[in-house]
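How a chain folds remains the central question behind the approach discussed here. The record that follows shows the chain in one-letter code together with its fold in token form:
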Amino acid sequence: MVQEYQSPVRVYKHPFELIMAAYVRRFPKSPLIPVFVDSEIVNETQSKDGSTVVTERRCMIDIEAPRLLKRIAGVDYLYFLQKNTLNHRDRTLHIEVRNETFSNRVIVYESCNYTVHPENEDWTCFEQTASLDIKSFFGFENSAEKIAMKQYASSIKKGKEMIEYYLRELEDEGVTAIPQWTPPVVSGTIRLRLPPLSIARPIPESSAQTGPDSTDADADAEIVPGSPDDKLDADYIRRYLGDLTPLQESCLIRLRQWLQETHKGKIPKDQHVLRFLRARDFNMDKAREFLCQSLTWRKQHQVDFLLDTWERPQLLQDYYTGGWHHHDREGRPLYILRLGQMDTKGLVRALGEEGLLRQVLSINEEGLRRCEENTRVFGRPISCWTCLVDLEGLNMRHLWRPGVKALLRIIEVVEANYPETLGRLLILRAPRVFPVLWTLVSPLIDENTRKKFLVYAGNDYKDPGGLVDYIDNEIIPDFLRGDCMCDIPEGGMVPKSLYRTAEELESEENRLLTDSIYKCACIFKGAPYEMLIEITEASSVITWDFDVCKGDVHFNIYHSKRVPQPPKKDTLGAHGITSPGAVNPQMIDRNWVLGQDYSMVEKALICKEGESVQGSHVTRWPGCYILQWRFHSSPACSASSLPRVDDVLASLQVSSHKCKIMYYTEVLASHDFRGSMTSLQSSHSGFSQLSAATTSSSQSHASSTVSR
């Protein structure tokens, strides 16, 4: 497997020429990097005007590996070839490194670039990428890969420290400015150089230290999160995302880049992407799969607009005993839930599972906003919140089966879509019945999340080692013997007059799924999914918008003057066996003849897994129109260094003979349709989750023609 690394953009607040003077001091060797034993120049060339210098070196590296492994490999040192191309005119340095040792077994490639900052010519940017491909290594491929990645991660950090060290060394020697290169001017036989175009300034004292420990307030003030198309800056990562290891930074940048290339539009916020990486221990493939599932869920249920569109019922405002309350000692938003005072049975009977789920989702969405706000207020990354749960009053009525069922579903949804948002859970005054409840819910909670739970059974939670270690004394709520007034509702029993009938609750069961503008459908091999649309007025416009979530599908639109007959009763169903045809009733009778009984009004469209398809069709005749999605067998994907959405979602397939779509259709009268003729063509785009707007490719395979 190829291991890849992509660094963030690291900014040195010094001119390019000064950085180059510090860089060359690392050769032929540097005590700051003990594994870099020595180097020698094997070739050096220079352009006629001296603007470009190409230097090739042979470097000797002492890898920290077990002695036995070195003996098996038969080497004590590894040799690498480095090619540096320094362009004085453009003020760039491009570095390429390849391994010489074991080049037939291992392929190592590194590319580094020093360039002038695009917005400040007195600053220098640094980026690097690297790849490692161990084809064979005496049966120790995994061990060699781990050693190499560990060594490389260490050298990345050392590289930045080394530049800063030699900058300070230059300053101690009085070298604080180096003129920019200027082209030589020939006058007769005498070569003259023009004076510098600009006068270099000395190194500001406040910029002498640019590492992670720098306390330069101005530097922090200048850090502004860029647009998704911008590259991530190392200082931005430190300020808004936290201290990450080089390999963790690389995972974030590569996943972010993958999203940019796939979605062709706005991408999830960096904090959100980072949560999914952390939840999967920065395993790129697992995090990508996890994130794709959640983004599809968010789009299907319009979760991005929940806080703006959902109005909290008065019943929740009166009887839901939870709310936000200041922040903990680390600046995390603090949410307090008085679960023991909550009438869970009454809330479920009056609101249904759906209402409670929306409430919890709104709490999580609000928590994400508060984390962003606290990050700005406290000047440090805050990506999760603290939850305090007071269990005083918890008893067996809280273990009412429908209530527990609702709780389990809510936990499942939150775990799947809000990973790494809970920083700490403080459970106070846990009664004897708590172990029973914990036994029911703990299997659904991620192991990393369970480690964040702290349980206090008695009333000594205010003693040292208790609540005061995590929350300032002055904001402890009054109902916990604190001095801070808390406006969280006290709850109480929900009046039975507000209870809803079982039929009403059943009709709203899973409403989060059914009241979404999108619907889901499964397509089986040999059993297409068909949707009947009856048109009573000519020139009506049929519009569609669907995502292919799993597998590849054929999309067709047919017109028939005949009304499809209701499907016959499935004979297998009478014996308790469900066939694909029973799951997807067929509108097109098998005895119908294409061209006689029904006709195709749009060219068939092959839709690949992961694509979004939008389009419209103007009808000429009244009658029945049938939208059909059929299973399509796609060829194996070609190998690539980074899988597309297709590859990620393909790994989630349970069956190779099943596809899944998420669709929305609507019929508009001709006078209500405001689109132009060009908008009547199907278009493709990647998934468009967590963004208010997305863009679609103009590539189209189906044209809108009037039906005949």
Remarks:
- The chain has a mean pLDDT of 79.
- The first helix runs from residue 16 to 23.
